[in-house]
Amino acid sequence: MDKFLARTLGVAALLAGAGIFYHYVVHLPSLDREKKAAEATAADSLAEEKRQRAAKYQVCLFTASQNYDQGWASACKSLAADNTRSLENCLATPSIMQNQFMGRQWCEKQYGDIDASPNCSLPGGRADNVNKYFTDAKKQCELEARTDL
User: What pTM was computed for the model?
Assistant: First the structure.
């Protein structure tokens, strides 16, 4: 009976040792690997999200800049058209044309600055409107980047 008990205790000790070995050598390292893989995946996902957000922000800023340039060019064209009409009206007004102190020279001085180029100089009010639109568009881009809309 003592031999049987000794063998049983030996087998039990071996099985317990095998269980402990498996737990510490196989099971726990696999959990660590899974945890590290999950953390790496989460970090990669976060980095990709940041890249996408930065790309969206840059596209938004580029679009706002393009709209600003188009708005400025459109305002220049509009101003040039207004100045052309005003110059034509001035030149067609007999009381101005017959006045020795006014005439063609006065009309051209008042309305002759006709620059329809996209880089013209806009008067304060028109320039402020175009600049305000651009500033608002940039703020909207920043807001979207922060909230990821």
Answer: 0.63
